[in-house]
TrEMBL record:
Residue ranges of every copy of the Tyr recombinase domain listed in the record: 142-309
The keyword Nucleotide-binding is annotated on this UniProt entry: no
UniProt lineage: Bacteria, Bacillati, Actinomycetota, Actinomycetes, Mycobacteriales
Domain of life, per lineage: Bacteria
Protein name: Site-specific integrase
Length: 309
């Protein structure tokens, strides 16, 4: 291999043939770096890599040789023999799916190298036909609960990844997915309600003289708080406490909002510059939570619920 140009070049193997274990290790290392670049936590990365290796050991072949039937056997074993929870199996499937999304991504050369070395390529084996369905069709009936800290990290990681997945699939909606990812962090970072975050505007943020390191995002004035019956919306001021939340909003303001191509006042507008509907944000959350396989009981208000330390 030669990385003098900043990229790995796989040379023809010797008489012993290519080493599949070394190649898989290189792919996993590349995936680890890509996840770190996305801001994924090291614990999440470790868990995802472990699930890929666990399936590799069970199937007995390298991931570029997997078929949907192999996935059926592995996850069927987890559920039927090892008696893993339904939500756990869904989470494992998400880990494997994300790995194969990365390995098959045309932005990388893994399939090109794989085809030359082994005569086969990676393919996605987690499909709509074998992916475990959500155990409850209507989450609104579940007992409401907060995110756990681990769930919250996994949710933010997947929300951050969603715009990239949409772009690579050639679909529309990457900008909206980016907007929603920042909106989710804003809900949690400032403890806001869904209607409050929808009505946020750039002018609602300002400096906090006691926390100058947050710049223009030191506090936010809420103008559309939950009102008493037959009363106008309550107003309040919320101080910024998380630097990562301020950084996410600052990045969105600097690089996201200009992509609308027109001046906008709302922090999270629609593609046409209007007020973001509540159902859009809720549907995005349901899709991500469903893909992660979390237990029921989560909604947009879960970002405001207390998580014991």
């Amino acid at each position: 291999m030669d990385d003098s140009m900043g990229r790995l070049v796989y040379l023809p193997a010797g008489a012993s043939g290519p080493d599949p274990e070394a190649f898989l290790e290189d792919v996993l290392t590349g995936w680890r770096r890509a996840q770190l670049a996305q801001g994924t936590s090291t614990e999440t990365i470790r868990r995802r890599n472990t699930q890929v290796l666990r399936m590799t050991d069970f199937v007995g072949t390298a991931p570029w040789q997997w078929t949907p039937a192999d996935a059926d056997d592995f996850f069927g074993h987890l559920r039927g023999v090892l008696n893993r929870a339904h939500s756990t199996v869904r989470a494992y499937q998400t880990d494997v799916k994300l790995f194969l999304d990365y390995a098959t991504n045309p932005a990388y050369d893994w399939n090109e190298h794989c085809g030359r070395l082994f005569g086969t390529v990676f393919s996605q084996v987690i499909t709509e036909f074998n992916r475990a369905k959500h155990v409850q069709a209507d989450d609104s009936r579940a007992l409401k609960r907060p995110f756990t800290l681990e769930e919250l990290q996994q949710f933010f990681d997947l929300a951050d990844l969603e715009p990239e997945r949409i772009l690579h699939a050639g679909r529309k909606g990457a900008l909206s997915a980016w907007r929603d990812a920042v909106a989710f962090k804003t809900l949690y970072g400032w403890g806001l309600r869904r209607n409050e975050v929808r009505h946020l505007q750039l002018v609602d943020f300002s400096r906090n003289v006691r926390a100058p390191f947050f710049g223009e995002l030191g506090l936010v004035r809420i103008r559309h708080g939950k009102a008493m019956r037959n009363s106008p919306p309550k107003q309040r001021t919320v101080l910024t406490v998380f630097d990562w939340a301020a950084e996410a909003v600052a990045d969105w303001v600097e690089r996201g909002l200009p992509r609308y191509g027109q001046p906008v006042n709302d922090l999270f507008p629609t593609e046409k510059g209007g007020l973001m509907p509540v159902r859009n944000l809720w549907q995005r959350m349901r899709d991500l939570v469903d893909e992660l396989g979390f237990p029921p009981g989560l909604d947009l208000h879960s970002f405001r619920r207390f998580v014991p330390a």
